[in-house]
UniProtKB/TrEMBL annotation:
Keywords for the protein's UniProt record, in alphabetical order: Methyltransferase, Transferase
PROSITE patterns in alphabetical order: SET (PS50280)
Domain SET, chain residue ranges per copy: 22-323
Protein species of origin: Ascosphaera apis ARSEF 7405
InterPro entries according to UniProt: SET_dom (IPR001214), SET_dom_sf (IPR046341), SETD3_SETD6_MTase (IPR050600)
Domain of life: Eukaryota
GO biological process: methylation
Annotated stretches, region: Disordered: 156-176
One Gene Ontology term of the molecular function aspect: protein-lysine N-methyltransferase activity
Protein name: Ribosomal N-lysine methyltransferase
Length: 480
């Protein structure tokens, strides 16, 4: 471990041995810590391209198919896999904290002693780490309408009252539509709220991209899952369940049970929930993400293989890719975002919908051009350009343009000017949010340490500055 600036703890060495005992093959890599960063995977020697550095067999993974059948049977057939897995870890951790032996079969079902997962649980990020990085569980001043608090006993519907009602209303106290939201500190993609625009939906409804209103989507998924878990396990503790749900959300891998010949329909792509095709993999969950990874993961039905795609020198961190995602999505799902992200995207939907007439919106919907207006570094998407054209073109000419029959009345300068106005509106929001963050009192939430509050505010400032730079680069491209 001398290659790494900071040595890992004893529990990580125990977990490494535990993983190897279960068939995980580790070749030329090790888990380590860099100053100012979390755990990661590093090369212990020079590694060539196309080297297998890690293999995780199916038998070592935690999946819906590997959990005890009698435990899974406690849940409804359409219960989300992530919730069942979180409940499994929750009960396992409670059993392990009460006994030095493997858990019995009262809650978890029959578990062979060799599948004692205590070493794995011992190396997971702490509850404090989760609270610090994931906006979903931040204090109310950041979230506004999302009221999930890991320290709020009021969200646990079973506490003292004995109320077994699993209604998600017990855990959510949304701000009414006409309320004053105050300063909005998180980005619109995360919160769905603005400082400089009306926070009310306008025009026809449509299916927003999964990269918009991310936290409300995440909250709905979490609370729906809790409904299933609390119904199956009436004594389940909300705080502990929330922690393990977030752990799985940040550390799981894609798993296709049909490739493995396993039985649960939810692992075979037959579920309506895309999040059901997941697995937890020991040691592999140390890998960090980049958009330009040096390692790729492959699943053949029997094992996951991690193969390098470039050379690495001794001591260099080896990254994988979690997928090509914008920074706001990474932030909400994993608790971090990248300094440089070629996939970073902003959505102009709220700005554009507020700028168009009701007739314009109905026209766009009729032609399937309503919504999902994206801004990248230096350009906007074709849908945005079509919306801008509609704003200045006669309706019949615009329809002919959509058909590809005519470019009459198409005016690139007018289109560019409209798009620039929309980008400038986003820049106004950047400045408003940064001003609001600068005026925050770090001591206005006595339940939080100054370090945590400052860290969260610093993350918000960093992200808003990224957005400002992204807007300015795109604006410059339209000015030239």
């Amino acid at each position: 471990m001398s290659s790494f600036p900071v040595a890992i703890g004893r529990e990580h060495h125990a977990f490494r041995k535990w993983s190897i005992d279960r068939g995980v093959q580790i070749n030329g890599i090790e888990a380590g810590v860099m100053p100012g960063q979390g755990m990661g995977i590093y090369a212990t020697r020079d590694i060539e391209e196309n080297e297998v550095v890690l293999q995780v067999p199916l038998s070592a993974m935690l999946t819906i198919d590997s959990m005890p059948k009698d435990f899974v049977a406690k849940f409804a057939a359409d219960a989300p896999v992530q919730g069942i897995m979180a409940a499994y870890l929750m009960i396992a951790s409670e059993k392990y904290s009460q006994s030095t032996s493997a858990p019995g079969d009262d809650d978890l079902g029959e578990i062979e002693n060799e599948y004692d997962i205590r070493p794995w649980l011992d190396v997971l990020p702490s509850k404090q780490d989760i609270k610090r990085s994931l906006p979903l569980v931040w204090p109310d001043k950041f979230k506004k309408w999302i009221q999930i608090d890991m320290n709020d006993s009021a969200v646990n519907q079973h506490e003292e009252t004995g109320n077994s009602d699993s209604s998600r209303a017990n855990k959510r106290r949304k701000v009414s539509g006409g309320a004053d939201y105050g300063d909005v500190l998180l980005t619109p993609c995360l919160s769905g709220l603005w400082n400089t625009l009306p926070n009310a939906a306008k025009g026809p409804s449509y299916d927003r991209s999964k990269h918009q209103h991310i936290l409300s989507r995440q909250e709905n998924r979490l609370l729906r899952t809790w409904d299933f878990v609390s119904a199956a396990l009436p004594d389940a503790d909300w705080d502990t369940f929330l922690y393990y749900w977030l752990i799985i959300n940040t550390r799981c891998f894609y798993y296709d049970g049909s490739m493995a010949g396993e039985g649960d329909p939810r692992s075979q792509g037959k579920s309506l929930d895309d999040n059901d095709s997941i697995a937890m993999m020991p040691f592999a969950d140390y890998f960090n993400h980049t958009n330009k990874p040096g390692c790729k993961a492959q699943f053949d039905g029997q094992q996951y293989t991690f193969l390098t795609t470039k050379k690495h020198v001794k001591g260099e961190e080896i990254f994988v890719s979690y997928g090509q995602h914008p920074n706001d999505f990474l932030w909400a799902e994993y608790g971090f975002f990248l300094d440089e992200n070629d996939s970073d995207t902003l959505y102009l939907d709220d700005i554009i919908l507020n700028d168009l007439t009701s007739a314009d919106l109905e026209e766009l919907q009729g032609w399937q051009y309503l919504g999902n207006y994206q801004l990248f570094a230096g350009e906007v998407c074709y849908r945005t350009e079509m919306a801008a054209c509609l704003k200045h073109m006669p309706r019949d000419d615009w329809r002919a343009y959509v058909y590809g029959e005519s470019t009459q009345s198409v005016d690139d300068e007018k289109t560019a000017r409209i798009i620039k106005e929309w980008i400038c509106k986003y820049l106004e929001e950047c400045e408003a949010a940064l001003k609001a963050l600068a005026s925050q009192d770090s001591n206005d939430d006595p339940s939080q340490t100054d370090d945590n509050v400052d860290y969260r505010e610093a993350l918000c400032v960093k992200r808003w500055r990224q957005i400002r730079d992204l807007c300015k680069r795109t604006l410059d491209a339209y000015i030239q």
